[in-house]
Amino acid sequence: SSRVLWTLAVTQLKEALITDVLDILRQRAESEAKVLLDAKKKTPSVSLVQVSDLLSEKIILYTDQFLELFSSMALPTDPSDPLVRMYMNYAPKTLATKFTDALLHRVPEAHKRAVLASSLACHLVYSNGIDWTPSVVDLLPVLMKQIKQAQDQGTL
């Protein structure tokens, strides 16, 4: 009877994972399609293949920059930290809820950094478009936070 229960549990887990993965693929395809079509509208003379190449280049550029940044820092471990939440949101919901501890503590740091770098890069490009390049105005909230921290520490 325990074998039957185990088989049932595994079958339910597989079904939930399949649903989760299909939802993830659907969401990411919609995000990418929106960016591609918006960029195509702005520049009708450019083919969708060329737009797709530009999109990939931008995502790779940002991913590499985030990877460089993350390589010199310890990743946070507090579940309420925005980077930890982003990492957990990358995983299928079933894994994130049933195997939280394993995802946080058993996945190698290099893999976590890669997931975060790619997730952040995709988020930036998909939410801001291919043409977006960070400006001083975009960075102002970060700068203000750093200034406040320096003031609180008495170093500014």
Describe this structure in words.
The protein has helices at 2-42, 48-71, 82-90, 93-98, 100-105, 109-128, 136-152. It has seven helices and no strands. The model has no long low-confidence stretch (mean pLDDT 89). Helix content is 79%, strand content 0%. α1 (2-42) packs across α2, α2 (48-71) packs across α6 (109-128) and α3 (82-90) packs across α6. The protein has 156 residues and is an all-alpha fold. The longest helix has 41 residues, at 2-42.
Q: How many beta-strand segments?
A: 0
Shape: flat
Unreliable parts: none
Number of helices: 7
Global mean pLDDT? 89
The main β sheet shows up as:
none
Radius of gyration: 20 Å
For the termini, the CA-CA separation is: 68 Å
Strand content: under 5%
Order of helices and strands: HHHHHHH
Indicate the percent of residues in helices: over 70%
Query: What structural category arises from helix and sheet content?
Result: mainly alpha
SSE layout:
Blueprint: H1 2-42, H2 48-71, H3 82-90, H4 93-98, H5 100-105, H6 109-128, H7 136-152
